[in-house]
């Protein structure tokens, strides 16, 4: 406990229910809501909403279990990262596996957020071009400059030291997520009213529109998109580590319930309303479905909100990876000044900025790498779906379940043990299926590209 108190003084943990909720909403309601209407369109009116609700309940339960394990029951020591929590319960080998999966997903999400932010920025520019030309100019353009612009912004924000200094950004991003979700929902209502009917069917996109094989792959990919929408398991312990002691678990439990409830409400409304508005023609990014027509100003606001949100969401997922690499470097090269030396840079009117050359170079190279890959693979739905499909089962299901079994000392072959294993195996099958669907989607995209 003394170590925990010392760490708290060093890190200045001041998080509350509301700051933790802002972190979670920024992580959960990233760009995932924009693809949910497409996912519901593949699954239909029965399976689509049911899948959203099921993943919501499943994620909330397993992450509740994971957060409860953030303190070692024997020493009382607090885990600062997901890897630490796994290490203290399941050992070093599984902690390393957890780290590889977790940080690969962080990397993939940063690529996905770069792609979708560029799409939103380009939509604003195209809308302006379209209206200035009086609908005569098709306004074709490349998304590369917008990805580069997003990358430059992330290089700047990435120099902020860690989670504990980014609370203001996450609060702004959380407000933006609610803003664009509300606009999308309103536009969906307006589109349904204009159509004069509710589009869609009970079983989703029909095999008249796509082949039976495509229907299967699109169904798997849709499940992956819904799993992606609840992907904040990657940073759940890191978010909890921002909360002041000693009631961090109770605070996190309340914050998780608030944020997941808000997210699920918007997911259900936006996903269903988008499908009701466009039916089988529902686009992968719902904002693009409303075209470049009026009210263009409202769509511009939604796209601006999306970009601001994704600036924050990018930081939610890259900061834990930054911290891990920098900690490893400091432990391996403790005498190398390039890695360890902090130089104070005075900033008039503000606290001095601590400049570390390794941090500056490594974080800048990371953002450049994600931006370059985004330019080479501009397929938001399937690329991000693949990364999240790979990470969903181990991070959201397997490790929390195994930690729960170990800490609670649940006997093998007991009814409770059997039920937990069935849950884990079922989600593993879903993960394999969604990964396969995403891979097929990427190959189809590559052909057209």
Any overview of this molecule?
It is a single chain. The protein is an all-alpha fold and 449 residues long. The protein has one domain: Amino acid/polyamine transporter I. 74% of the residues lie in helices and 1% in strands. The protein contains 15 helices and two strands. The chain has helices at residues 2-11, 17-28, 32-68, 82-90, 92-132, 144-158, 167-195, 212-229, 236-240, 248-278, 296-332, 337-340, 357-376, 380-408, 415-448; strands at residues 343-345, 353-355. It has a two-stranded antiparallel sheet. Helix 3 (32-68) packs parallel to helix 14 (380-408) and helix 8 (212-229) crosses helix 15. The longest helix is centred in the first third of the chain and has 41 residues, at 92-132. It comes from Rubroshorea leprosula. It is found in: Membrane. One of its GO terms (biological process) is amino acid transport. Keywords: Amino-acid transport, Membrane, Transmembrane, Transmembrane helix, Transport. InterPro entries: AA_transpt_TM (IPR013057).
Summarize the structure.
This protein has 449 residues and is an all-alpha fold. 74% of the residues lie in helices and 1% in strands. It has a two-stranded antiparallel ribbon with strand order 1-2.
